[in-house]
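Propose amino acids for all 250 sites.
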């Protein structure tokens, strides 16, 4: 089943065209990695999938972005609902200045959930799902800032998961983390794949090779090649991809 599809997507910041005619299909419950040199449009493309670029003035989208076969830029789409279904995790862990518990409960509360028992059950379940429960269960009332960077990032993943999305977008989620925390985040991504469709931007090619099923290589706003990760890293079809994965540029 196709979960996310784009059709001939062009995207402009003012007059600058950041994305050029991108069409992609992403399978349900798969992990897709976006790779390519800095500035090639990976984050821009990722942000289109939950309309985060709407917040940037003087931008323009052409083409279609569909999730579950629905054009998410259609006029009936409620952006808050979309973002509940399509969660996002950023490069730097950005927990709220609240307790560990309240970070995870946040999304439920802003969505009007007030049943305390339901909330605490969901917080526990989500923290278990994010492989963080054992590390935090005795200090749920402590500030999220007391956690290590890697734990904070897994908390942010838990926060995104708490409102039951079906898609998780991750923009270089491990690039600010040490190797051990990175390994934990990668392990988590592997686990989450059972329940979520995950799109991850990474400039770490080993990471893309480890975590993803499919990989898309971007260059200068175009998607040069999209294929099985194994194929991209062992026998890419395009010369630009070959040059990139062998470290000849970028
Ligand atoms: P990547 O994530 O691959 O590094 P980005 O999507 O961040 O690339 O950027 C793609 C291009 O769009 C770059 O040339 C960048 O300078 C430009 N760009 C990104 N964000 C903005 C913005 N808010 N305003 C204007 N140009 C932007
Ligand atoms: Mg980026």
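Proposal:
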């Amino acid at each position: 089943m196709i979960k996310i599809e784009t059709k001939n997507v062009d995207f402009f910041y003012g007059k600058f065209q950041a994305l050029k005619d991108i069409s992609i299909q992403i399978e349900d419950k798969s992990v897709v990695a976006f790779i390519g040199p800095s500035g090639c449009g990976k984050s821009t493309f990722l942000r289109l999938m939950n309309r985060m670029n709407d917040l940037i003035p003087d931008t323009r989208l052409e083409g279609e972005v569909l999730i579950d076969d629905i054009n998410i830029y259609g006029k009936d789409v409620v952006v808050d609902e979309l973002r509940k279904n399509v969660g996002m995790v950023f490069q730097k862990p950005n927990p709220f200045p609240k307790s560990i518990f309240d970070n995870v409960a946040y999304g439920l509360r802003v969505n009007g959930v007030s049943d305390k028992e339901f909330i605490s059950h969901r917080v526990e379940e989500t923290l278990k799902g994010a492989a963080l429960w054992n590390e935090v269960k005795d200090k749920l009332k402590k500030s999220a800032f007391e956690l290590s960077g890697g734990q904070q990032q897994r908390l942010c993943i838990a926060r995104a998961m708490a409102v039951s999305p079906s898609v998780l977008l991750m923009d270089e989620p491990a690039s600010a983390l040490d190797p051990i925390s990175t390994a934990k985040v990668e392990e988590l991504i592997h686990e989450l794949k059972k329940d979520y469709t995950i799109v991850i931007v990474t400039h770490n090619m080993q990471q893309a090779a480890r975590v993803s099923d499919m990989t898309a290589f971007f260059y200068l706003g175009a998607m040069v090649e999209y294929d099985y990760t194994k194929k991209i890293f062992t026998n890419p079809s395009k010369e630009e991809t070959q040059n990139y994965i062998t470290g000849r540029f970028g």
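The mean pLDDT is 95. Strands lie at 2-13, 16-27, 31-35, 59-67, 70-71, 86-89, 167-171, 197-201, 214-219, 222-228.
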